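Take a careful look at the protein record below. Let me know whether the structure tokens fit the sequence:
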Amino acid sequence: MTKVIHLSVECYPIAKVGGLADVVGALPKYQQKLGIDASVVMPWYDRPFLQQHQFEIAHQGSFYQGSELLDFQIYKEKENSLGFELYLIKIPGKLDRSEVYCYPDEGEQFIAFQHAFLQWLKDTDTIPDIIHCHDHHVGLIPFLVKHSKDFSFLSASKTVVTVHNGQYQGWMNWNKGILLPSFDTWKWGLLDWDGMINPLATAIKCCDAYTTVSEGYLEELYKAANGLESLFSNERQKSYGIVNGIDTEIWNPETDTSLTKNYSVKNVKTGKVANKKQLCKEYKLNPRLPLLTFIGRFATEKGADLLPEILHHIFKENEDKLSIFILGSGDQQIQSHIQKLAEPFSGELAVYFGYDENLAHRIYASADFILMPSRVEPCGLNQLYAMKYGTLPIVNNVGGLKDTVLDINDPNGYGVVFQKADVQDICYAVKRALDYFEQEDLQKKNQQRMMLLDFSWEKSAQKYLNLYSQLLK
């Protein structure tokens, strides 16, 4: 049986900041169903999941990070409640905190995480067939497997890197180089990009294969990758675009325990109405109006900086024609601008700052449209969740959105697609969606069509299995 270890700093439901967590929390489970021995290794976080589940210490060890001796423990979840083996690495003073990101010593944390992982494999003489690394946080692994004598025993293991977002690369000054495990210094150039240690660039140079989370995003990285365009192009012979799936055991309106009323393709209209009524009652919105939502990070790459102006235009042009629910957090300036609109548009606009998984499920089930004005969207999961719940996506024609949403003008279309992230285009797209909404028969058929689309992990997991098999041959 092929042994695959997924290495990531996020995994739902232990610690989630974005879509990375959803992927790592689902892909191994579906790989297990295909007969792969898939597990996840991630940092230890002081989060509720740890108090709610039983863990045992599977290993203890130590290593030097520069001149500092670090002790580490490997915690294994006893029940395998996620459908795969889960291991957490705890390092006192480094990996024992509550948050995933935003610490000033983040670079040292990620180096320690990767070193502890490799040391654990060495101590226990464990040689996986595939080490699957997710994003730059673990981008040094392919280099260390190949060019550190301490870990040469892993030379038969293949490394796969999945790029969830190529804009973030983990840049570090070369003064951090002393913190790395000992390596062949003749190979220092593999760590370097433009005078910095660049873990993502290192990963792409040294891995056996790299994937992106959609075919569209792979093509975009050749043209716009925050300085790594030439590298992605030069290494394209080992690149694969595999669109993410969704975990239909969690995202399923027929069984979702978060919902006021469960529903299926057969009763989608009455099901969504019941959920909308309850949500609107709680947040003082009019349930008789179509409901538009935005769910996500307040970041420019998500187009969230456009939201305040979009809201002004939409409410001005569509007075008493729709309600809007925004769920998100991030850039404080964007959040402040949105907050200022909450009072003048009271009764038309509901805002929840932060992220609430349960609330997100309820919004998908209640909303008629979801807006995704992203400038960059490597895959996008929100549009897939929305469609599974019969909610029409209004999306920019980029990355994975381009791969997964077909415009309603197409005979087989089911979403509204606009061509650039600007206020005029977006507001026109919303108008198109509202016009479509008024055609009840078409709208109901479209809801049913969306819900029957297959964006499950089964297909994507099989593509990863094919890639692993190809590498191991």
